[in-house]
Amino acid sequence: MTQPRSDSAANIFVLEDEPDIARLICASLGDYGFRCEHLSTGRQLLSRARQATPDLCIIDLGLPDMDGMQVVRELQEGSPCAVLILTGRNDVTDRVLGLELGADDYIVKPFEPRELVARVRSILRRYQRAAAVEPAERTIARFSGWTFDSARHTLTAPDGREIGLSSSEAGLLATLLRRPNKILSREQLLGERELDPFDRSIDVRISRLRRKLDDDPQNPKLIKTVYGAGYLFSAQVAWE
Ligand code: CA
Fold this sequence. Notes:
The chain has two domains: 7-133, Response regulator (Rossmann fold, 3-Layer(aba) Sandwich); 140-239, Arc Repressor Mutant, subunit A, CATH 1.10.10.10. Helices cover 39% and strands 21% of the residues. It has helices at 19-31, 42-51, 68-78, 92-100, 113-133, 167-178, 186-190, 201-212, and strands at 11-15, 35-39, 56-59, 82-87, 105-108, 140-143, 146-149, 154-156, 162-164, 183-184, 223-226, 230-233, 238-239. α6 (167-178) crosses α8. The longest helix is centred in the middle third of the chain and has 21 residues, at 113-133. The protein is elongated, with a radius of gyration of 19 Å. The two termini are 19 Å apart. It binds calcium ion. Calcium ion (CA) binds next to loops.
């Protein structure tokens, strides 16, 4: 994730198929010194985001070539950045799915330009604060009474038992714990070295992790299966 240097230096991609709305968004943000780039199809945005990682993408859901939700999903897999969904779709399911896919905020059209600017600034500030506070390399994660040491590949249970993990299990757990409460696809969990998204071994590793975490596979509380989408680590996680 790129960290914006300051509000005004932030680079914003605006994905919007209606030219009038795109102009309004870019003019409103431009007044506050943001640099905006307008793209009118999902494919255009995804290919542009691979060349130049934006600080934030403003994404419309109703697009001519693909659903905006799919754009959010692919963006988070390939070029993660802050996302604000700006859409005419005022539906709780869309809102929840958007946020679960990693969007930082959701605004329903028609929108008030000053509110849009305020939300954009608040998202960018949040990322700046996180970058300032978090040390670059944190190796210990605590969640639900458990401690995971990603350098030593060990888990310590709430009762003090120490459990060893293989390096692939530790890598998978670290990936889940870095982005808790977000749906991660199999591709995201496999990492970049293993390219076969149909590799079922991810499921095998997940079940081994569940066993080590005493997580009931029939009714898992920590590593939840999201059918058709991937897995989600459901807990408050603190890295130190
Ligand atoms: Ca639209």
